[in-house]
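Please, structure for the following, as tokens.
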Amino acid sequence: MLNLKTIKNIPPSSGVYMFKRKNGNILYIGKANNLRNRLASYRNIGSLSAAKQRMLQTSHGVDIKITTSEVEALILEASLIKKHQPTYNILMRDDKNYAFVVFTKERFPKILVTHQPLQSQRSTVNGQQYAGVIGPFTDVGALKNALRVLRKEFPYCDCARGKRGHKRMCVNGLIKKCPGICCVEDKVRSAVLQKRGIEEKNAGAEYKKNIRAIKDVLMGKQTSLLRKLQREMKTLSDRRLYEQATTMRDQIQSLEKIFRHSPYIKKDEISDRAKALRLLKEIAQLPTIPERIEGYDVSDIGGKFPVGSMVVFKDGVPEKQSYRRFTIKQVAEANDPAMIEEMLNRRFAHTEWPLPDFILIDGGKPQLSAARKALMARYIHIIFGAIAKKEEELYLEKRKKPAKLKDLSPQLLHLLQHIRNEAHRFAVSFHRVKRKKSLLNI
């Protein structure tokens, strides 16, 4: 057990700290992104609340548990408070400090954060029946940030809409924060499912998988969740369902980022990237393994507010400080190849920018021809390709037929999809900015 006089021996890591009595009973549990700094703050007695000053007078020392991330510390703190019910956590608790994550009881369960103290006899929160509760969490900001990160890969609904659904997909559905089928009218849901090729009876299966995944993370079951997702990814890959397998892989990598450096995660990202880059060298007949890859895409609505994006990947990893945006000025109508040509002409006018080893364009043969025209005009000899989204085919200058990425390598498919999706995201975000500015100027 440590004491506050030996602060310098405490690592500046994220983790949980527990003040204890002489007999070992826990007085107070807290979490910190930097344990050394947080515990050092307890040495300034005058700045503490009266309750914490009383707690320190009773305390015999402090124990710490180091974690690998803020999220892991958040979850560990919640589980320890629930297990030990420390005296001063209860005394200092109020509705502004503690939070619970609630899972509602319905076909498409919602995830809500509430400050209401949940008792066993209660069955509703904010008028909605609930099926499960996780908490308490003392750091509401960290909790909401964790849910925000998780929601990117495991979309869910938190809409307060009652039994009457929306007449159209909600904003969260449009921006992929929820599946878009949970809080809409039945006829809207049917239309969305029909467009996606999903049967009505299977509509809730994938949604409930997302809810289960988030529950597992918040309950500290990261290891079992990762193993389960890895098994599912392998099954999908074996069945040649590569697009679904790639989605599953993205979810796994997102979780690995949340729990980065955790000892139980066997990271193979580096070896996978190396394999993908070696295969790209062979397929595209590059002279060396590509270090710098540039990805390009354009975005417009009927030719209005046309913009383009350039993203850069260094050794298979996004290098966001090198991303560039272009306002298309010379193309007056919806013509993606012409926009690509203009953007590449302007990009390679910047002789101060490093040249890429490979160029990837979102599109097919027309976009490939536009790239060829732009590069030939400037006497630039860089190998380039275009990736067609429908069949995930890679069109290359030196190949008569496109390479079917799904039949080649999931690692290469994932890398090229990542580059394409980043270029698309960056272009669309710039397009929205331009459109919004135009609307505000009306």
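The first helix runs from residue 35 to 41. The longest strand covers residues 304-314.
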